[in-house]
Amino acid sequence: MSGSPKWAKKRFVIPAAFGILFLGVGIGTSGGGTEKTADAKPAPTVTVTERAAAKGGKAKPAPTVTVTKTAKPKAAAPAEKPAADKAPSGKVVFKVWGSAPSGVDTMYGSDSDNRDGSGLPMTKTLPLNDDALYFHISAQLQGGGDINCSVTVGEETKKGHASGSYNICTAQLNGGLLGGWD
Q1: Which regions are flagged for Low complexity bias (predicted)?
Q2: Among 31, 45, 96, 126, whose CB has the most other CB atoms within 10 angstroms?
C-alpha cells in the first residue's frame, strides 16, 4: 500500500482544479471591455509631401499636412405631415401621406359617393353633404411601406395608420344623431 489513501489526493486535486478554472475565467473577463468601438472617432490621416529644392542650395522639405475627417450620414427626413387639421367651411378633406415604394390604392368619399385616388401625398377636398351618414378614407399598401390617413369635417378629424405589406389605413367620421360629426 502506498502512504496516503486515494480520497486524500482528491481532497487537494479537485479544489486546485476549481481554483485554476476560476482564475482563468477571471483573467479572461477582466481584459478589454474598456474600449468603445461604436463611439471611437477615426484618427486623422496625415500625408507629408516634399517640395523641390531651391536654386543652387539644399532646401529642407516643407511638410504638407492633410487631415481627413469622416462625415456622419444625415438622418432620414421625417415623413411629410399634413397641415393643420381643419377643413374649410362646407368641405370635407381627405389625406394620405407617408412612404409606399410600391404604391397605394385609395378610396374615399361618403356612404353615397365613393372615389378612387392615387399617389403620395394625396389631399382631396369634396363638398360637405349634410345628408351623408359618414365620410371615410381607405388606403391599402401595395407591397410595403408606412402611411397615415385622415378625414376632416370642420374641426373634427379621424386618423388612421398602416405599415407593412398590403395593410390598410382607414379613418371614418360618422354623422351624429343630433348633428355634427363623430
Answers
A1: 54-87
A2: 96
Please report the sign of the dihedral spanned by the C-alpha atoms of residue 33, residue 37, residue 38, residue 39: positive
Model's pTM, two decimal places? 0.53
- Residue 71: count other Cβ atoms within 10 Å of its Cβ: 5
If one compares 170 and 23, the residue with the highest pLDDT of the two is: 170
User: What span, in angstroms and rounded, lies between the C-alpha atoms of 99 and 181?
Assistant: 29
Percent of the chain with pLDDT over 90: 37
pLDDT at 82: 45
- Check: CB of residue 120 under 8 Å from CB of residue 141: no
What is residue 146's predicted lDDT score, i.e. its pLDDT? 95
Cis previous bond, 73, omega within 30: no
Q: How far apart are CA 174 and CA 78, in angstroms?
A: 31
Sheet with 146-153, edge to edge strand ranges: 122-127, 91-99, 146-153, 156-163
Locate the domains of the chain by residue range: 91-174
d(C-alpha 182, C-alpha 172), whole Å = 9
Q: Helix or strand or coil: residue 151?
A: strand
Per DSSP, 71 falls in state P
Give φ, ψ of 8 to 5 degrees. Answer: -70, -35
Residue 51: is its pLDDT beyond 90? Answer: no
- CA 96/CA 82 separation, integer angstroms: 9
